[in-house]
Amino acid sequence: MQLDHATIVTADLATARRFFVEVAALEEGARPPLSIDGYWLYADGRAVIHLVDATVPAHVGRTAPRIDHIAFRLTSAAEWQALLQRLRATGTRYQLADVPPMGPQEAQMQLFVALAPGVVVEFVTARQHAQHA
């Protein structure tokens, strides 16, 4: 089993789209003609982020905006450095967190961006890839 996609419901589609395209380096792509505005953003040919307009009234039991966080794994130092460059170029604030090794899992570095109230995006990599962060 693998994660198919994350849906983020937000009243600020433009800001969320800009972040995922300019910082996370996803690509805007095809989206079915749905009744609610939004975007589908792609990585490696798959729609991994669905952005949905929160200006429509929430359904009973579903609040908007909503999501805790989504995480993207970066597998090389070059990817990590490119992310940092995009964050700095766009003036995006972020926080770093060090995750110590646990059993067979190597030490990790996490980077968190508060995209909107209640919506956090995490990028994670092996600590060795983030040595110059």
In percent, how helical is the residue content? 10-25%
Fourth-level CATH superfamily: 2,3-Dihydroxybiphenyl 1,2-Dioxygenase, domain 1
Name the CATH class: Alpha Beta
Low-confidence stretches: none
**Radius of gyration, CA atoms, in whole angstroms:** 16 Å
**Mass-distribution shape:** globular
Number of strands: 8
Which fold name is given in CATH as the topology?
A: 2,3-Dihydroxybiphenyl 1,2-Dioxygenase, domain 1
Strand arrangement, largest sheet? Answer: 1-4-3-2
Content of β-strand: 35-45%
Characterise this structure.
With 133 residues, the protein is an alpha/beta fold. The protein has one domain: Roll (2,3-Dihydroxybiphenyl 1,2-Dioxygenase, domain 1), CATH 3.10.180. 19% of the residues lie in helices and 37% in strands. The strands form 2 sheets. A 4-stranded mixed sheet has the order 1-4-3-2, with helices on one face. A 4-stranded mixed sheet has the order 5-8-7-6. A hairpin with a 2-residue loop joins strand 3 and strand 4.
